[in-house]
Amino acid sequence: MTLRPFAHLLPLVALLTAGPPAFADNGNTIVMKNFDFSPIAVTVRAGAAVTWKNLDGEPHTVVSANGLFRSAALDQNDTFTFKFSKPGTYKYICSIHPKMMATVTVK
């Protein structure tokens, strides 16, 4: 019988060293491709910036439902960045293609 005196601690060590997976970092990018936002829901910390990048050959916009932010029409490979300073849930759409909907949650 082989004894591993600390083997029972391995799951705890893995948990403590994994880090918090729930939040995106300040370099979070949402892509617009195939007439969808991807991912359609992200969570960031207050003060984080989110960047949207259009990978489609058609223009898209990023427009918040509450009027907080609004991009110009973004052509292919154009980007738009917004810094979220307050916690909340921010729904947004592409005003050119309103079926494109997504959410940023700020904690």
| CATH-scheme architecture | Sandwich
Number of helices: 1
Main sheet strand line-up: 2-1-4-6
Question: What is the SS-derived class?
Answer: mainly beta
Order of helices and strands: HEEEEEEEE
Largest sheet composition: 4 strands, mixed
CATH topology: Immunoglobulin-like
Euclidean distance between termini CA atoms: 49 Å
C-alpha Rg, in Å? 19 Å
Task: Please mark out the parts with pLDDT under 50 across 5 or more consecutive residues, or reply none.
Answer: 12-26
Class, according to the CATH hierarchy?
Mainly Beta
How many strands appear in the DSSP assignment? Answer: 8
Residue share in β-strands: 35-45%
Helix residue percentage: under 10%
Indicate the topology.
Elements: H1 10-18, E1 28-33, E2 36-38, E3 41-44, E4 49-54, E5 63-64, E6 79-83, E7 88-93, E8 101-106
Parallel strand pairs: 1-4, 3-8
Antiparallel strand pairs: 1-2, 4-6, 5-7, 7-8
